[in-house]
Amino acid sequence: MDEKTTKEVILEFNKKNVAYCILRNYQNIWKNKDLDILIDPKDGFKVKKILKHFGFVKRIWGWGPYILCDKTFDIKAGCLDCQKICIDESRDLLGRKRKHKYFYILGKEDELKHLIFKSLSKNFRKKKYLKKIKTLLEECNTRIVKEGFFSNFGGAGRNMFNAVRKGDYEKAIKYRGEMYQKINSHCVKAFFSRMKYIFYRLSFPCLKR
After folding, report:
1. How buried is 53 (Cβ within 10 angstroms: 0-12 exposed, 13-18 middle, 19+ buried)?
2. Which pLDDT value is given to residue 70?
3. Which CATH number fits domain 3-207: 1.20.1250.20, 3.40.50.720, 1.10.3720.10, 3.30.460.40?
4. Minimal CB count within 10 Å: which of 48, 66, 157, 165?
5. % the chain with pLDDT above 70
6. How far is CA 137 from CA 68, 112, 166, in A?
7. Number of H helices, E strands in the chain
């Protein structure tokens, strides 16, 4: 799918007042096969209608991916998750979104937090993430990000972020392990975050096939 179709879909989101933001890899969105988009669940019907109008086909139950040729719009609703933990509510994130060209993206602090999670949960040495993380560390309010990690994951989350700021990725990965170990054992707040994630996965029938 070419840039024209991708742009038309996004512009239609804007025209229909869909609350959305593109999560990452937005620098050349028409070149990416997968486009991850966070929406407000209340706009589920509108999103589904727009994507179907442009020929996208829903392949699985739930919100998930809509596919057209080699292009996938992966729709996420309700919360932004990482390894089945609800990190932030979509409405909070969408309230802090910013405009980039003709579409919306996460606020700088939210984008930094999201990219750190994505990097650590898969391959932290992905150059495209590391470069962007470094840029965001210089541009955003790191105190807000640090407090967010501490609020969600306690000392391990704070230490992980501090290690990222220093460029010590080996320590960051170590603290990530401690963080998820805590989540899986006795972190009550994280338990409710997991339950919230499951709730969102089971809800919003408007986004089903």
Report:
1. exposed
2. 66
3. 3.30.460.40
4. 165
5. 74
6. 36, 7, 10
7. 8, 9
